[in-house]
Amino acid sequence: MLAIGCxxxxxxxxxxxxxxxxxxxxxxxxxxxxxxxxxYPVIASETCAHITSGECERGLxxxxxxxxxSIAANKTPGIRAxxxxxxxSAKYTRMHNDANVLCMGGRVISSGLACELVDVFLDTAYEGxxxxxxxxxxxxxxxxxQ
Length: 146
Prior knowledge:
Binding site for D-ribulose 5-phosphate: 7-8, 64-68, 97, 107, 130, 134
Organism: Bittarella massiliensis (ex Durand et al. 2017)
Helix content: 40-55%
Pfam family, one: LacAB_rpiB
CATH topology: Ribose 5-phosphate Isomerase B, Chain: A
Distance between the termini: 26 Å
Mean pLDDT: 97
InterPro entries: RpiB, RpiB_LacA_LacB, RpiB_LacA_LacB_sf, SPI_LacAB/RpiB
Number of domains: 1
CATH class: Alpha Beta
Structural class: alpha/beta
Active site: 63, 96
């Protein structure tokens, strides 16, 4: 199950990605917004709470650029959010960083590209191995926040 959310700048892109998720039969919890003006830190926090609780495995977040909402998401311990606008980054953030949230910008990428990035993000496994040491370091940084 996925948790998804957006601010008003990412609303249209989120709605297009939801159609794609529906076509793929992927279940999700939509944490908003519904097109109204909202503050992206609130949406990021609510969406990430579904991941850190274990209710959802991963998340998708959208704002105008993808940057603000990724910064907000990364304030939540246990979240490794990556703002991506290309295939390679979306794939390798899963393979090497075990990212659990993909962030994208509604004013930056097309819906077609966004759906490709979602697919590679969801379909790519974390490699572990030599990368685990670094992911463990990220987890230790999270513990310092608490």
